[in-house]
């Protein structure tokens, strides 16, 4: 329930278990005292399901753009309506044959109404042109398309709008275990026979006798086990993370688990004890030989040793220099955030062992031990995490690590991942959860910006950090896998849960599920998010160019001649194609690395950038110039002066419409790369 995989004892003193817990060991009878909303799990779910109804950064911007354009369109339409009505009723609107359309006192009511309706249609056409009603559709198409594609990149999007929000993320608060690291403890350093083994499974320098003893000590003195399936598949190792690490290392040394265990019989076991920080076993080898093996916290085992084994298998006494050497090795491991485990043994005679019926109280001898060696275990960084974090930094996204580990371990992993670059940083760059918790709200906001690593943090500290960062105007993405991460995932702009390690509750409250638990996938999600945002910008530039051009042409024609070259049906036809296929063509533009080299769009950036305005206005100006030339000089250019005036007018307007449509086709290509000269680059990939 706490999200930590630490096993907790339940007894008369603390008998309560929470729903969602797993029983790891033991048996008993259970009485259910609460279900549903009255359980801790239920309360968590209830706090998640309250929907805040907040708009995503993109929705806010789109609403702004649409409202702005709508107001302009309406005001222009009203102005045109007033001008046209004034011209009509003062007799300045003419028929194709040159006679005025309205003559005062001579017109019937029906004819007047028909004239007014025609003018009204022109005004409506202008509104149709101006309002980009296809925007929401285009955005949904883009998001849905990207969502399908992100699935292939191992990201399952649960909320459509999260796609595009991810593109504006300015900071990512990530868990350490399982996201930045592999959550697989492994032996990375070993010190046996008085010298360092490099790599840790290289036993060539050790004599066969020493290797045999190490392997026997690993196989017999363990609470884990190894299942070796038939058919040559990889063996399955079970046990606590540390036991699994040591057993896997044993396999690399060439240990045959079942075979080694069958060669000797166990006489007595001293289970690993967290107070004594050691565990031991006595095994009988042959008829009369007994070996007592110990393993545990390196510095404590070292204190009990009076001698050590060199690589040839001969016993050397533990001199003060040698003790110093071992201690130095243990300290070096601790600095590198490794967990140190030492192995020691002591030979006994069968005569020293009590008879079988008195053996239950026999305490294994734990003095005068012989040091075999020390291993350093760590949870290694995921391969590729450094590159991903470098990519994030280049893209202007700050990655912060929030972990329950102590500050030393957190610092070492952060240095290894590249979250920290300087090993000597101090508060508030690296801070304890407790310290952060005790600050006031204002101080928290001040400090939040500077934090890179938070160690010993509780889930609530994570939530406080997210709130503080959001108040500072950041768009925050949070990764989490435990049930307790749910509130932080829910509070963040984008909650990312882990598909493999993640609990059901974490997935429920997240927006995107990272299916392979990998930090590199998270960076791919950012790339997709930015791609979505960029594609929507391209589409807006494309659509507004059309709208501006059509608007200007119709307004100018309407005011000068009382008629419009592009009628409502034609413009709706253009809109229909543009909002579906035109939008899809730009929406399916695949993401490129160029996207990750620019800073994120925060909450405050305008949707239409200066570059877009530049492109849009130049292209609209170009289209307007051509189409107005055709409107006013079309009859001469097309040599239609001597045709029947009504027929010539229809021909000219058809020509204008075709030109207008072709202009949009080329405008679509131009919109592909708003900020690059070569608009055909990568066109085969679309």
TrEMBL record:
EC number: 7.2.2.10
GO cellular component: endomembrane system; plasma membrane
Swiss-Prot/TrEMBL keywords: ATP-binding, Calcium, Calcium transport, Calmodulin-binding, Ion transport, Magnesium, Membrane, Metal-binding, Nucleotide-binding, Translocase, Transmembrane, Transmembrane helix, Transport
PROSITE patterns: ATPASE_E1_E2
Regions crossing the membrane: 65-89, 119-145
Organism whose genome encodes this protein: Aegilops tauschii subsp. strangulata (Goatgrass)
Domain Cation-transporting P-type ATPase C-terminal: 564-679
Pfam families recorded: Cation_ATPase, Cation_ATPase_C
Keyword check for S-adenosyl-L-methionine: no
Protein name per Swiss-Prot or TrEMBL: Calcium-transporting ATPase
Catalytic activities: Ca(2+)(in) + ATP + H2O = Ca(2+)(out) + ADP + phosphate + H(+)
Molecular function GO labels: ATP binding; ATP hydrolysis activity; calmodulin binding; metal ion binding; P-type calcium transporter activity
Residues of the signal peptide: none
Domain of life: Eukaryota
UniProt function note: Catalyzes the hydrolysis of ATP coupled with the transport of calcium.
Topology versus the membrane: Multi-pass membrane protein
Similarity remark: Belongs to the cation transport ATPase (P-type) (TC 3.A.3) family. Type IIB subfamily.
NCBIfam families in alphabetical order: ATPase-IIB_Ca, ATPase_P-type
């Amino acid at each position: 329930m706490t999200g930590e995989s630490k096993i907790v004892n339940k007894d008369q003193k603390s008998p309560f278990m929470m729903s969602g817990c797993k029983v790891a060991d033991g048996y008993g009878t259970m009485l259910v005292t609460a279900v549903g909303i009255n359980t801790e799990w239920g309360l968590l779910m209830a706090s998640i399901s309250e929907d805040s109804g907040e708009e995503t950064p993109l929705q806010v911007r789109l609403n702004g753009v649409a409202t702005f354009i709508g107001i302009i369109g309406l005001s222009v339409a009203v102005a045109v309506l007033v001008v046209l009505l004034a011209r009509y009723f003062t007799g300045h609107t003419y028929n194709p044959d040159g006679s005025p359309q309205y003559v005062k006192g001579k017109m019937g009511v029906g004819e007047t109404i028909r004239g007014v309706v025609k003018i009204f249609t022109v005004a409506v056409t202008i509104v149709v042109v101006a309002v980009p009603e296809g925007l929401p559709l285009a955005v949904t198409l883009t998001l849905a398309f990207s969502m399908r594609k992100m699935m292939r990149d191992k990201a399952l999007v649960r909320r459509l709008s999260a796609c595009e929000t991810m593109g504006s993320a300015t900071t990512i608060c990530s868990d350490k275990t399982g996201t930045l690291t592999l959550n697989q403890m492994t032996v990375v350093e070993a010190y046996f026979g008085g010298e360092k083994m490099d790599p840790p499974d290289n036993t060539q320098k050790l004599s066969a006798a020493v290797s045999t003893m190490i392997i026997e000590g690993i196989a017999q003195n363990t609470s884990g086990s190894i299942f070796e399936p038939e058919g040559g598949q990889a063996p399955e190792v079970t046990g606590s993370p540390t036991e699994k690490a040591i057993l896997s290392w044993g396999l690399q040394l060439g240990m045959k688990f079942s075979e080694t265990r069958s060669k000797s019989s166990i006489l007595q076991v001293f289970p690993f004890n967290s107070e004594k920080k050691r565990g031991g076993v006595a095994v009988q080898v042959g008829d009369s030989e007994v070996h007592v093996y110990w393993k545990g916290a390196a510095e404590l085992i070292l204190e009990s040793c009076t001698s050590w084994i060199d690589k040839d298998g001969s016993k050397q006494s533990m001199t003060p220099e040698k003790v110093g050497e071992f201690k130095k090795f243990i300290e070096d491991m601790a600095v590198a955030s490794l967990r140190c485990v030492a192995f020691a043994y002591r030979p006994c005679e069968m005569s020293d062992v009590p008879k079988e019926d008195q053996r239950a109280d026999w305490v294994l001898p734990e003095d005068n031990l012989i040091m075999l060696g020390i291993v350093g275990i760590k949870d290694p960084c995921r391969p590729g995490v450094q590159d991903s974090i470098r990519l994030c930094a280049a893209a202007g996204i700050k990655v912060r690590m929030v972990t329950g580990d102590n500050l030393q371990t957190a610092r070492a992993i952060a240095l290894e991942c590249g979250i920290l670059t300087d090993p000597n940083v101090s508060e508030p760059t690296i801070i304890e959860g407790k310290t952060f918790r005790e600050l006031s709200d204002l101080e928290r906001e001040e400090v939040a910006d500077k934090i890179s690593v938070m160690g010993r943090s509780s889930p609530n500290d994570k939530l406080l950090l997210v709130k503080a960062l959001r108040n500072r105007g950041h768009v925050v993405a949070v990764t989490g896998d435990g049930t307790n991460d749910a509130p932080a995932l829910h509070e963040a702009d984008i909650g990312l849960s882990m598909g493999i390690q993640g609990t059901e509750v974490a997935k429920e409250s997240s927006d995107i599920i990272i299916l392979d638990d990998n930090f590199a996938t998270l960076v791919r999600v950012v790339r997709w998010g930015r791609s979505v945002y960029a594609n929507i910008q391209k589409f807006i530039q494309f659509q507004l160019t059309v709208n501006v051009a059509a608007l200007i042409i119709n307004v100018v024609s309407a005011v000068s001649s009382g008629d419009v070259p592009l009628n409502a049906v034609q413009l709706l036809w253009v809109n229909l194609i543009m909002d579906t296929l035109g939008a899809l063509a730009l929406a399916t533009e695949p993401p490129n690395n160029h996207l990750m080299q620019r800073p994120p769009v925060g909450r405050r950036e305008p949707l239409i950038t200066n570059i877009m305005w530049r492109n849009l206005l130049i292209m609209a100006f170009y289209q307007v110039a051509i189409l107005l030339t055709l409107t006013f000089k079309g009859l001469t250019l097309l040599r239609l002066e001597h045709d029947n005036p009504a027929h010539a007018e229809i021909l000219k307007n058809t020509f204008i419409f075709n030109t207008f449509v072709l202009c949009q086709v080329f405008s679509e290509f131009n919109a592909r790369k708003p900020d690059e000269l070569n608009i055909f680059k990568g066109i085969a990939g679309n």
